[in-house]
Write a structure and sequence with these properties.
The structure is a single chain. The chain is mainly β and 500 residues long. It is built from 5 helices and 23 strands.
Length: 500
Amino acid sequence: MTSLRRIGAIAAIGTLAAASALLTGLAAANADELSDLRANNEVLQQRLDQLAQVGLRHPNLPPGTASIAGSFPRSFLIPGTDTSIEIGGFVDLDASYFITAGGNNSNAAVPPVTGAPIASGLPLPGTAAASRQYGWFRMQASNSRFFVETRTPTPYGQALTHLEFDFFGCTAGAYCNDLNTSTNPDTPRLRLAYGTLGGFLAGQTWVPGNDLQASPEIFDFGGDVGGWGWARAPQIGYKTPVPWLYGGTAGIYLVQPYTQIATPEGAFSDESSSSLPSSLVSNPGKTPLPDAALVLNWEQPWGHFQLHGAVRELDMNDGSFLQRSFIGYGGGFSGNVHPGWLGWTKDNLGFQAYAGDGLGHWNNPPGSGANTLWQGLATNYGGPGLYGFKGGPTSALAAAAIRATTVFSWGGEVNYQHWWTGNLRSSFTFGIGHQDLPIALLGFKDFYNKEIETAHVNLVWSPVPFINTGFEYIYDHRLTANNVRGSDGHILTYHFQVKF
């Protein structure tokens, strides 16, 4: 009996000891977990305290902070500084089959996805180019890009720098690389290079009013016609919030000028030298002042709305008897709306329209000096037997007979994007651009365009967020100043783009 009691006492003591050990272990484990939680909370609270100093968008982290998270998405802190840096870009392959509108030499179809420039030179009926335009195929990777952006908080507001390149180098707009003679010797081209301090901006970036939010998501490098502003340009500007308009900003800018002149012998710009028509004595184009631009923008949860305009001086001065000055001006509106109908919350509607006199390169496509693109001035200068024509009269009386005028133009574009699923979407676009060229000064010239139209339909799939791939159909049409219709362009393209 005594033995049984002893055995029972020993068993009870063992049970109590085991329970005590288990409870002690659990308490120790709980203590360790609680310690870890407290440590994590302290780290989190330190991060929150740092963010609370200047807000979520631009944290002013002290030098040496252990965290590498930057102040904006996909950025990281440069060690020992409060500067956040992002390195990004994408690798892009474009493959295009020109059902019509193909090039007539090995490089004329480059870049293979560009609506506006190709539309501007669509072959005319009865020409050799028209008979050879069918069935051209091209591939390229020149649209691949690389950029670096930094942001640093300062007492004067955020300081930002952005530097970006693609590989359409050689001469701007000529696309003279991408030949296959030496394994596509594409060269880098500066796209963007600008800096900001608070609301102040200086450098090369998108021209004021070039509304990227209103533009469609299309693979076509040239985009639709009908938009405001040609692309990117050196400029100086200042943007500030509008106190009486929630979500509103106003910006004023001085932009690199550019004078385009259309003559009976061909078009050129103030920058033309070797491209000046050979029959002309000299290039009278001159840009005495920068273009002035104003942009009013209103951001709202439903989208945004923008008003923009520009004023510019265009001069003709040959240093002798010809001295003329003209004022170009114009403006328009743009925006986008998320209609949200039928529960399609991600769908987007974009729109833009403009009009003006002497706008030249403020149209899209720009008046780069090519005959087929938009012009700022039209004149009879250099016409056969007139002042400016080689072998023509050179007196003040002859110069007085030279007439010139600004060119009126207008355009518009509309686009709609529909999301079929969370990673599959389509965009439908249409754009039109028009200019009124004075036939009395230029004569009936088929190399000048009166109207250009473009349209796009695509299907874009993003299997993962940083990859876009899909197909796009492009339609192009042009009407010359002589009312001759160019061959319609029909292009089918495939794209594969990986962002980093």
